[in-house]
Structures are given as C-alpha cells and as structure tokens.
Amino acid sequence: MAKIFSGKRGQNFLEYTMLILIVTAALIAMRQYMQRSLNAHLKQIQEEISEPSRGE
To answer: What is the DSSP letter of 6?
Structure first.
C-alpha cells in the first residue's frame, strides 16, 4: 500500500480520487433539483391527461 502513495504514482492516485469525490458530491447535490424538476414535469403531464376534453 505504501508504494501506491509514493512519488508521481501516488499523486495521480490522489488526484483521481479527489476528482471522483467531487463528481460524486456534485451528483448528490443535484439529485434534489432533478427530483423536483421530474416531479413538476410528471404533475404537468398528469394535469394534461386529467383535464376534460374541450370541444366535446
């Protein structure tokens, strides 16, 4: 395990780990907004389907 963290190879490993953590944190933060957007879209579709036909 000590070889992983030595020199340039260890730096690359830490950089990729940090990149993965940042992307994961961003996706977790965006989850709430995406869920709200999806719910609003589904509600709009539901309202369009349940509204009575005009012209009949």
So the answer is: S
Distances (CA, A) of 25 to 4, 12, 17, 28, 49: 24, 20, 12, 5, 37
What pLDDT, in 10s, does the model give residues 1-56?
555 556 777 889 999 999 999 999 999 999 999 999 999 999 999 999 998 765 55
DSSP assignment, residue 1?
-
Task: Calculate the alpha carbon distances from 53 to 36, 40, 41 in Å.
Answer: 28, 22, 20
Sign of CA dihedral 26, 29, 35, 40: negative
39 contacts 31 by C-beta, under 8 angstroms: no
